[in-house]
Amino acid sequence: MTTRTQGTRQSVLIVGGSGVVGSRTARTLRALYPDLPIAIGGRDLAKAAAVAEQVGRARPVRVDLERADLGLPAGEAYGAVLMFVKDARMSALRFAQETGAAYVDISTAAFEIAPEVALHAARPRSAPVLLACHWLVGAATLPALHFARGYARLESVAIGAVLDEQDVGGPAAYADFERQIGAGQKALFLKDGAWTWAGAEDGARSFVTVDGTEVKGQLYPVLDLMSIAAATDARSVRFDLALGETASRRRGEPFSTEIVIELEGVKKDGARGRSRHELVHPEGQAPVTAVGVAVAVERLLGLAGGAPAAPGLYHPETLVDPERMLDRLAAFGTTIRSA
Questions:
Q1: Fewer CB within 10 Å: C terminus or N terminus of the chain?
Q2: In Å, how far are 139, 157, 232, 236 from 229, measured between CA atoms?
Q3: What are the tens digits of pLDDT across the range 16-34?
Q4: Residue range(s) defining the domain that contains residue 216
Q5: Any idea what the CATH number is for the domain that residue 163 is in?
Q6: CA–CA distance, 262 with 281 (Å, rounded to integer)
Q7: Separation between Cα atoms, residue 78 and residue 69, nearest integer Å
Q8: What is the pLDDT of residues 247-289, one digit of tens each?
Q9: Which helix (H) or strand (E) holds 319?
């Protein structure tokens, strides 16, 4: 492992930091940690510089994902490398492993994590690797696990997310969406205790969104299903995404983002029961994603107390307490309702 000569163990490189979600994450981190060193990384140094100036106490760096050293000055290293763009060469993960930086990926579908898992398996003690490729970086999974604590035996979890068609994000986010929808011919989900590749009869599901409108969603290949299944004894877990008009736009307001979590099982009092939980942010998906990344970073680097995360392979729920995530989501504008 190389020696750090620049940066500190509590410093962050945001690759794709001048994009819609990356820049929002930088501002969220700055709001939470005024003294945290932040580098805004991107191909266009002028755009990165503009975001760095907005964030304050941040600096722009040019990042080249075709180079093993990311095109950074010799010896430069960080406490965490946050990926807001797809890195087909795995250059950023290799860089993080070489320097011991925590690595956070939010752009990879469940069916394409094998290269990252293999790199971790080859060097398991080099760096903390967080695969946070969940919907909005755990904004559905962690609340679902929080609400699941009300059940003695959880049998099914059905999550429906509504992404407004005006809120797909910048070019990197749109490329992720197209790749994941186009490359995955079938989605994997848990049905009656067995992992199943969805056929035509299982690929779509209608659910009622936050204003009572019924929408049709498609099974989406995110890691939420695997995380929830691993953390609970639920026999059925599915995640459906509906791309269209959110409830706020139907009211004539700007787009929002919506998550509907429906649980079923045996409650703590022994009676069968169901519950429904809704999360809504009036500014869309970017601020929710930013909170998810910020909560992960503060845990990985030990910014909120406690030791930094040890080298290992993580999902959000293995690092972050669900109540912590709910508190942070609420503090940054997410409305949470249960029925």
A1: C
A2: 16, 9, 5, 8
A3: 999 999 999 999 999 999 9
A4: 138-284
A5: 3.30.360.10
A6: 18
A7: 12
A8: 999 999 999 999 999 999 999 999 999 999 999 999 999 999 9
A9: helix 316-319
CB 336 within 8 A of CB 330: yes
Following CA atoms 53, 54, 58, 63 in sequence, which dihedral angle do they give, to the nearest 10 degrees? -80
Q: Tokens for 222?
A: 């995110």
Residue 299 in 3-state DSSP? Answer: helix
Do 186 and 210 have their domain in common? yes
Tokens of 293: 């990344």
Q: Which H or E run includes 300? A: helix 285-301
Count of domains forming the chain? 2
CA distance 164 to 245: 5
Instruction: For residues 203 and 270, state if they share a domain.
Output: yes
Nearest in space to 173 (alpha carbons), one of 318, 25, 64, 52: 25
Q: In 237-284, where does DSSP find H-type helix? A: 247-250
